[in-house]
Protein 1
Amino acid sequence: MDAPANKISVQGLKAWFGKNEVIHGASLDIPDRSVLAIIGPSGCGKSTFLRCLNRMHELTPGAGSSGKMLLDDRDLYAASVDPVELRRRVGMVFQRPNPFPTMSIARNVSAGLRLNRVPGDHAEVVERCLRQAALWDEVKDRLDAPATGLSGGQQQRLCIARALAVEPEVLLMDEPASALDPIATAKVEDLIHELKQRYTIVIVTHNMQQAARVSDRTAFFYLGELVESGPTEKIFTNPSEQRTEDYVTGKFG
Amino acid sequence: MSALRRRNAVNAFWTAACGAAVLLALLPLASLLWLVISRGVGGLSLDFFTHLPAPVGEAGGGVGNAIAGTLYMVGLASLVALPAGVGAGVYLAERGDGRFGSAVRFTTEVLAGVPSIVVGIVAYGLLVVPMKRFSALAGAVALAILMVPPLARSTEEFVRLVPGTLREASLALGVPAWKTGLRVVLRTALPGILTAALLAVARAAGETAPLLFTALNNQYWNARPDQPTASLTVQIFNYAVSPYSDWHDKAWSAALVLLLLVGLLNLAARLLARGRGGRTA
């Protein structure tokens, strides 16, 4: 059996805000159609790592990065890569649901297509993405209602549907369930299981049980250092590093 | 006296004091409305809105040319001031963190504090003196100078109120930065900006001082920008300072018309603002 090809390969990534280096050299591979969970205490560089993958990190004034990040063996940071194009291939879901308040539910889903001038009325895309995000049955009768009328959990699934509509290959999720109640969290986690059939997913989470439930591989960041990464089961049951064991067993962090 | 009774008494006293303060603040507004309506409503008729002013002692006549002149000059001023004010505000919100941005912000603040009569003198010096005539253009320029600073500041506020997470959401969908600014950030701030624009228009419509020696006045209809032009405010002023009692009555009626015009603009601005609240809640 062939080993799964690596969708993403990161080699010696450093990232900084001004003079403050927040990732001190991280290397890891993410196989295609798998879920990587990134865990670690606040301020350890998890979110920055994620934002380097779709080049959102560099939008902050003074922020920058070095090292190699390959997507399908091509350097994300090559001069020939347009970051705007890249972000259509690498979608992102944020910590807090952020639907566009001026748009209806349906128009939120199709926003990426409409704003990028993809022709058509997108009704099929809207339905497909809302079904994929397990939201269709709850909103199919009010697609033209404002998106802000939805509950927090529904808004977050709407944002996932919106990210799926531009047909990305990779989906980055920055603590997508941290603002949600347990029921909505379970829905989002079920969704991640569904989505990994088609997408490569990288999820940042503070919730260790969540990381154990949803991911194939886990990476542990501490103080800007990638301490350890590997199969999720190994990280949680038999980690190589003492610091990883201390963190996953709750001794600190 | 128990502690509870004492607390209740203190509470009742201060509630009453706050209520009295509200009444005191409302008294001038109520008496103003009462005076203008009671003295002005008698002179209102269709003719008053459509006819030219009548000479002293002659019955009838209206302020049609003054209403048209106010709308004309405010319209001319808006043509320049709305894009300039909104554009400056968007610039300040998006790129205004540097030294140039601070300079622009400081300038708008100073300009916003300049008395309107001074702005009138500036327009007089800039346009009336070289053109050797009073004109609608000079009046419109004076009004435009007054409209830009508050509009720029409130536009900046409304654009800054748009959460950064919306901008990120759009960028993360692969939408270019300029389109994100236009279709997401500005679109979200639009109701607020429209409200600010309407308030600026309403404020300009109520100005007298900058028009006194720029547009002057005109007894007839005028559509040419290089001619003196009537306005409701200057007409009210002229009627009010005249020695004739029938002109005094007309001043009250014209004041009522102006009040209605400005009130309608404010009402429209309120409705827009309420729409915004409903959508972002």
Note: The longest helix of chain A spans residues 152-165.
Protein 2
Amino acid sequence: MTQRHHATPHGTRAGERTTSRRTFLRQGVLGLSGVLGAVGIGYWPRVSRAAPPLRPPGAVTEEAFLGRCIKCGLCAQSCPVQAIRLGDMAMGFGIGTAHIASREQSCGFSCDALECVRACPTGALRHQVVKMPRTSARMGLAVLADPDACLRRRTQPLQGLARQAGFQGRLRRRWGGAWQVRALDRTVYERESCDLCVLECPIPQAIRMDSARPDPATGRLVPMPTVLANCLGCGVCEMVCPTEPASIRIHPGLQPDQGSGSRT
Amino acid sequence: MTARVYPPQASPAAIAIHEARRQTFRQRMKTAARLLRTHPKSFRLRNRRWATILLVNGLFGLGWHLDWEMLQGTFATSRLFGVPLSDPFAALQLFIASRSVPEQILLGALVVMGFYLVVGGRAFCSWVCPYSLLAEWVERIHLHLRKTRRIHDHSFPVTTRYGMTVIFLLLSALTGYAVFETINPMAILNRAVIYGPSLALVWVVGLLAFEAFYSRRGWCRYLCPLGVMFRLLGACSLLKVQYNLGTCHHDGACRQVCPAPDALEVTKAGHAPQLLNRLSGNCTSCGRCVEVCPTNSLNFVFVPFAPGADDGEIRPPP
């Protein structure tokens, strides 16, 4: 603070001045610590060991993403199926950052031009992936997280809607030569044995339905979906999975050579 | 009567006025009181300002809901007819946290800074920031509680927000995150307007409660680092409020309505160094003082064509 260079019209006594200065300092310290305490909320996800969120295609690593994403929502506004949401306070430093809840609305790479990546002004979604093979924009991998619940494994049919009536999720596809966005609850399925994850997967060679695979627990041969190395983690399988919760889920950031993604 | 010390840059004409007024204090106060009673209440600028805040924020919301191409994004970064706009403090944090300078963000921040360099730095605070509108409404609760003597106002050193700015930039460097954006009530409200309510609004309500019951306009006056960015721009902005010492009665009506802590120190008796003084960058250009002044001693001026001088960064007595 610069030196006071003018007179006070109504001067204060020296004693008062020191008291008020002390109060000022105390309040300044109090205010700063209060605000810094609020900042501590940023570390909540780390303290609570929350699973990392699924980021849009082409995202840099989670740590870098938290610093890079400016929370502008331009990606969310460019997405034709509005899969991208902005985080809330529970995401700590990720508040306002772009993420995808596949179970509610999957990305599905439905625009195919990676509109979100093109819209990103900061490079949190790497712009170069637009011109690279789609696997460079991988968000994660689908994993059969709950094999016991899988309808196919229990050889159960699927008659009717994939999810409950009124479910808001959409699929954007070429239907009859034209791109269309269609609500999932408008499609009635008639499958003798559930294979929606394979049926609706928009990525070629990303998932396959095996008629007989050894059950990891019992060793018996059972039918089961197998995720292949082409999977981009687009999340359509998670969205359409009729079991509650989804038997197949996206693991953010997983690559085919790591973890159990390609073998489950 | 003892001799009074005036600012070193005070002009002889200003000193003459100050000296003459010391002799006629009582009479001036009577005149001032009469003028204040008869001054018509005007809220024209304030209403326009509120309308501007609602319009700008509403446009962002509409842009999302109606899927406009011409306006996309949030205050952090948006595109208006393809022109990038960025919050300068968020941009600065991003540069530091990610140790990179994305050109779109840099360009956006420069466009925004250029704009507020023209219309007045903290004009953002009064004319655009959604938090300031809520804070202004909550300020009425604070003033009512104070009038009925249920609370006291607590002020902080005005340097606190400079401390906040430095601390948050340091935190960005240390953690690699844009830490201030985690708690930025302006951004939280902006996202709530566009994408719907969020849990983070609890923090905003907490801040408003702090302002209502503890410190009048506490966040905007003493804490917000975004205000500091715009305040620095405001020091050399082209549109400013100018104070005319010659016509002023020092009744203090302007200081009672001013949302900034010390922008109007210059209007106190004995403080103005010149006959015409432009307010410092703390001024948010809200125009309340212009409306309430009974003698029209405060006016908006376009600096290149205004004859006055800057107020010499007058600070309150410690």
Note: Confidence is low (pLDDT under 50) at residues 1-18, 259-264 of chain A.
